[in-house]
């Protein structure tokens, strides 16, 4: 096996391991991301607080109507009980009755507005709660799929590691230090394919002399631009 081919084979193992590790990191980030759900929960809490205030106000308007209705009943009993015969007192009670009934209309209108606002706040709260339920269900489905994918990736990593170890144990790689050094300085890609006399990583044109070396099984050729090892698939 040629020098660049050996390193390219090793690169394929490492690339597969890198990709699997990167995807696991992405999955862990997704699994740990609660931003959307937390925002929905916060929105529900705000809706709950608004609903509670509306319910309290509605209850106060209901009590006001009840208390005022009691005053009207008391007024009517005095007015029509026959116990009061003084014309002036009767006139005063009649005026009070008219005033009480007018204000009752105001209180009942206020109560109706409070009822409508409470119903609106309740609808918003129910929508917020339904949104949390939908998000939770969606998260459970996505997480189930991601946990399954993560398990497969972890199994794949073990398998690739085993193959890589077997490859290293069975193959003499004198250029391993060079390969490892380039991995650190070239974005984990130490070996790149040369296609039609150009570097597949950076796109640079490869001079004919270097291209000839890249085709040799006993030499290592390097891209003059990105410095990666060139490998020509035969």
Proportion in helices: over 70%
**Could you give a short account of the major beta sheet?**
4 strands, mixed
Number of helices: 5
- CA(first)-CA(last) distance: 12 Å
Q: Estimate the strand proportion.
A: 5-15%
Q: Name the helix and strand elements from N-terminus to C-terminus, one letter apiece.
A: HHHHEEHEE
CATH topology of the largest domain: Helix Hairpins
Secondary structure class reads: mainly alpha
- The main sheet orders its strands as 2-1-4-3
Mean pLDDT: 95
The quaternary structure here is: single chain
β-strand number: 4
Task: Please explain how this structure is put together.
This protein has 234 residues and is mainly alpha-helical. The chain folds into two domains: 3-10 and 174-231, no CATH class; 34-170, Helix Hairpins. 76% of the residues lie in helices and 5% in strands. It contains five helices and four strands, in the order ααααββαββ. The chain has helices at residues 3-32, 35-80, 87-170, 176-185, 208-214, and strands at 191-195, 198-199, 221-222, 229-231. The chain has a four-stranded mixed sheet with strand order 2-1-4-3. Helix 2 (35-80) packs antiparallel against helix 3 (87-170). The longest helix is centred in the middle third of the chain and has 84 residues, at 87-170. The termini are close together. The model has no long low-confidence stretch (mean pLDDT 95).
């Amino acid at each position: 096996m040629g020098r660049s081919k050996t390193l390219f084979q090793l690169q394929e193992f490492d690339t597969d391991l890198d990709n699997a590790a990167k995807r696991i990191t992405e999955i862990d980030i997704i699994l740990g991301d609660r931003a959307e759900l937390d925002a929905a929960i916060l929105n529900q809490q705000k809706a709950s607080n608004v609903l509670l205030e509306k319910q309290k106000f509605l209850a106060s308007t209901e009590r006001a109507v009840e208390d005022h209705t009691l005053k009207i009943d008391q007024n009517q009993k005095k007015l029509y009980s026959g116990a009061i015969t003084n014309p002036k007192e009767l006139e005063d009670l009649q005026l009070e009755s008219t005033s009480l009934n007018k204000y009752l209309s105001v209180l009942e209108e206020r109560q109706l507005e409070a009822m409508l606002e409470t119903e609106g706040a309740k609808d918003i709260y129910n929508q917020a709660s339904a949104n949390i339920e939908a998000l939770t269900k969606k998260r459970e489905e996505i997480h189930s799929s991601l946990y399954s994918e993560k398990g497969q990736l972890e199994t794949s990593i073990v398998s690739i590691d085993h193959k890589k170890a077997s490859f290293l144990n069975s193959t003499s790689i004198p250029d391993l230090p060079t390969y490892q050094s380039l991995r650190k300085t070239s974005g984990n890609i130490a070996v790149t394919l040369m296609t039609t006399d150009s570097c597949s990583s950076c796109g640079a044109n490869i001079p004919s002399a270097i291209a000839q070396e890249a085709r040799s099984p006993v030499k290592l050729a390097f891209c003059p631009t990105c410095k990666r090892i060139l490998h020509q698939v035969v």
